[in-house]
């Protein structure tokens, strides 16, 4: 197991990637597909997202955030709770741009390896999908503005634990050892640790505590989105 704690690190050579942005891009992607969403096209900039959506047409939604807030003119922000009241079933898909998560999807996709989206909600199933495929699993933490994010590292600790339950004796790199120690330090209590993070602090200030609670629920979803190239463009699919 190789765990990349910050998105700027050189990516090691692995067979499959699990990309984690616990608060909130990977949790939101899981919720999107749970609610019948078909595709997410991740893009890095707001301008590119607007341009792509204009080309694709009205049947697509535009979603994402900057500084955790919805972007002007977008249909949705980055709250996983939004899909409770937005009907995705008759939409072709969503164009999405977030500060960190979509960049991590694009980075993992550029390796040409298998990529899955992992969060706490789908931790068990994401670990299972990754292990089924091959032996060397990498976990890429999306981080926060190029720096380490405690929430992602804790979710990586949870994923590592799920992987170890299934795979037993595996070789851990230093990133995995750090994450494992951190996971133990917070008593394997994801929510407790996550509330110490900068990302959680910002969401709390913005009154989005419910998003944090939702993202911290462990193993309540079997939805594992994958990132593939569709007509040369990275795309999240089920
Ligand atoms: C991101 O992708 O940067 C995050 O998910 C940020 C957020 O939703 O607050």
Automatic annotation (TrEMBL):
<dbReference type="GO" id="GO:0000287">
    <property type="term" value="F:magnesium ion binding"/>
</dbReference>
<dbReference type="GO" id="GO:0050532">
    <property type="term" value="F:2-phosphosulfolactate phosphatase activity"/>
</dbReference>
<keyword id="KW-0378">Hydrolase</keyword>
<keyword id="KW-0460">Magnesium</keyword>
<protein>
    <recommendedName>
        <fullName>Probable 2-phosphosulfolactate phosphatase</fullName>
        <ecNumber>3.1.3.71</ecNumber>
    </recommendedName>
</protein>
<dbReference type="Pfam" id="PF04029">
    <property type="entry name" value="2-ph_phosp"/>
</dbReference>
<comment type="similarity">
    <text>Belongs to the ComB family.</text>
</comment>
<dbReference type="GO" id="GO:0050545">
    <property type="term" value="F:sulfopyruvate decarboxylase activity"/>
</dbReference>
<dbReference type="InterPro" id="IPR005238">
    <property type="entry name" value="ComB-like"/>
</dbReference>
<dbReference type="InterPro" id="IPR036702">
    <property type="entry name" value="ComB-like_sf"/>
</dbReference>
